[in-house]
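Hi P.,

Sorry for the delay on this. The queue was packed all week, but I finally got your sequence through. Input first:
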Amino acid sequence: MSSASGTSHPLVELTAARLREFAREPEAVFWVFVFPIVLAFALGIAFRTKADDPVYAGVVEGEQAARLAEVLRGTPGITVRIVRESRTDLALRDGEAQVIVIPGTPPTYKFDPTRPESRLARLVVDNALQRASGRTDRFSAREHRLNVIGARYIDWLIPGLLGMNIMGTSMWGIGFSIVQMRTRRVLRRLAATPMSRAHFLLAQVLARLMFLALEVGALLVFAWLMFGVPINGSWLTLAGVAVVGTLSFGGLSLLIASRPRTIESVSGWMNFAMLPMWILSGVFFSSANFPKPMQPIIHALPLTAVNDALRAVMLDGAPAASLAHEWMVMAGWGGLCFVVALKIFRWK
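Then the structure:
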């Protein structure tokens, strides 16, 4: 795309300049490519699903503690720890024990009913002690155990991490770069060139798209090799979601960075925009946990649309045509924000 004078189109030159600038920043390379993999590895290890995870029972030390602990140790699936009476609250709080057994006739179970693992541990421990006291079952049910790839927490988590990474690197990468150029008076010099405002803003987003394939691919390949996370849908649809999601956050980032003159100012606006989405958009836990009246607002957020679309494609194998709402939300945010940014952008 060269002119008769031998010079390239401003959009090409600006995009190439932004790519060279990015490659010269090792910190940016780390946050874009390495950090998401480190985060996925840490969370995947911390929340890995094992078929026979034991329940952790604490027995308060005392006269009957040894007998109760022996009964519980003889039951498969229970790990027993003797705890001092003064440490029972700490043991429950820190996860050392999911239920505390206080010896007595009958024994007392101390547990947190708001935590599912505590309720499960209470049932398992109670069943073991009741059996040891002579209780018998009226029947022995058959079991059909399933361990389905795609239904684990790590399978659900990876699309959320991918969406969060697309948002974070798009917002910080574009917003910081623009405000930094404004602070160093680079924008003022660029304004004196034949380049248009639209060329400059588009180049920021295009440069961001250049890294997208490597950024998304690295995390997906790692998740597949390390945890066996599946991709049941079309790679083309998945790539489309990543591209449109990046354009959406690119537009939002251009809007936020269109006026601030300092890094501190743009940082505040970035956090103001991203923090609600980190919490509400289903990155680490389902957005369905929030009250029903909040759901329309949550589903209008761009990160919710990106995460829902990524999960639908990766886990359910959903086709592109079934993602109409998500396409509309992502495109709407990106297009509207870009138009407004084009209107209000300030060079100095």
